[in-house]
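Supplementary Note 3. Input sequence used for the single-chain structure prediction.
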Amino acid sequence: MKLTVIIVNYNVKFFLELALLAAQKAATQVLTEIFVVDNNSNDGSVEMVQQKFPHIQLIANKKNVGFSTANNQAIKLAQGEYILLLNPDTVVGEKTFAEVVDFMDKTPDAGGLGINMIDGTGRFLPESKRGFPSPAVAFYKTFGFSSLFPKSKRFNRYHLGYLDKNKNAEVDVLSGAFMLLRKTTLDKIGLLDETFFMYGEDIDLSYRIVKGGYKNYYYADAAIIHYKGESTKKGSLNYVKTFYQAMIIFAEKHFKDKAFWLVLLLRFAIYFRAFITLFSNFIKAFWQPVLDAATIFIGLFALKNIWAVAHFHDPDYFPDTLLYINFPLYIFVWILCVYLRGGYDKGNRFSAVFAGLLFGTLFVSAIYGFLPTELRYSRMLIVLGMFWAVISLAICRIIINIFKHKSIFYNANKSRNLAIIADKEESERILSLLYKSRLDFNFIGTINAQKDDNISIENNQIGDISSLKKLIDIYKLTELVFCAKNIAYQDMIKIMEKLPNHLYYKIVAPNSEYIVGSNSKNDNGELYTVDLSFRIAQATQIRDKKILNFGLALLFIIFMPVLIFGVKNKLNFIKNCFKVLFFRYHWVGYSADYKHLPKLKPAILSPLSTLKNYEYDPNTAAKICFFYAKDYHIYTDLDIILKCFKQLGDGGK
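The predicted structure, written as discrete structure tokens, is reproduced below.
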């Protein structure tokens, strides 16, 4: 046996199917055995492998044993001269296995090999080649010098930015997403260190390869797709903590003479990077409302002076309380109403902002009548403030769009101009899948996967693969769907590398009902997923659910003396009300075990709460939660809460 491929999977069934189909094609070029080690997935991964890939060796763990342990399970059974550790969210080309094995055969000093990796939009992933995290490297990465000087040999040794990504080179660290290892090397240095549960195990193994007298190489002559690159995870506090904790384990193991200072630096890095992550996430979430509030306040300040002189002939007519009490109150109401109307949802038109300001003005006017007499200064300032807010916020958005998107009017949710690269039969099948998934797109036409001089307009053909660049320009295409039945995986990868990065790509495997791609992430941004439309993940539904949770929690607390008699567990009901009030829980949700659904916070009730008098199996439960997420509306939550009111004192679901 020449090659053993090992794929460790955890709840990424859709990617795994695509990865296995691509790996099977690549395996025809080299005598290969394939292992799948599943770490107790609950998304049907094991059943999918058993049904569609019965010849593949499957190890189904009853618990999540971690990346290192799972790989070691298969390595101990491997018969191959080379061992390839491959992520389930990767797509390899048909010749990839043959090319990398040939390189290893011709390079006897190579103990391990990494490869050129691109993400789902064709962008090069810098983690394809890395340096060891020495104290200096860790310092420069932690404090952002590597980002400021990406090509510097001194400051960016972590991602080896000074090395040409298009040339083969000796490197320090291999990525665990694609790590080709010589079996004799593993026999000498040992298997993966199971102390590392996730992250760091590839750095540790790479370091031991070098210490064992071998070299690690970066192979640039072939590329693979790696959907879940490092960049998709860095916004997560959990990633920051887990990654740097792994670096601490590595430092204590290999840099004992410098471990104290390096560990101290890494512990500081955890808090520093966590602060940066929190601050960055805060800025991303609130920069627009804060900018709007500041803009409105500046206008109100000027209008106060203008109106005082023009109407009252006294520049000091209005007291300071107008600035410190009234204006902040007005602005808060305006911004809140804009938010509730969806004015801060991604891609929403200015009409939502205008509607929010209009409703906010009506609400402010109503509040004005209830203010003490000494705080009722001028209704005209409210009216003038609204006009200023409408004009200034419109101008601000135009300026932002010009600088950010090179367009006066920009809609991030504009329809996709989509083309399918396939033959007529597959194009019709894929188009049917796209319509079933209820996506908002403009189907431009089919692009023949082979060069064809006889284009048929009746078959929706707009051209062939040889004129792809021209077709993208002519039809302003934003998305391409590849059919793996008609075009080779390695050709898809080459196209993605060459075309502009603003394009989105999807891949549909033969006989598969899943459309796997790069521009549809789940709510926490850590995984790409199938392009199904879950209403519960839409911005408007997320906002409505938060408002419903908060409103009901507040209402329940106010009327607690009466409502508490209708609940079984009274003390827990009080606790649950405050958990929901402070956005730690939802009233209604589903278990975190459903990894294939958009992630939700823990919940008091679930769609299954109404079925306590019935017996149901796990598949039925999964389907009920699936349809709850897909067709979500706040009325669904209200219905469940009313029917299961007695259970509101239960524990989280």
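Residues 535-649 form one domain. The first strand starts at residue 3 and ends at 9.
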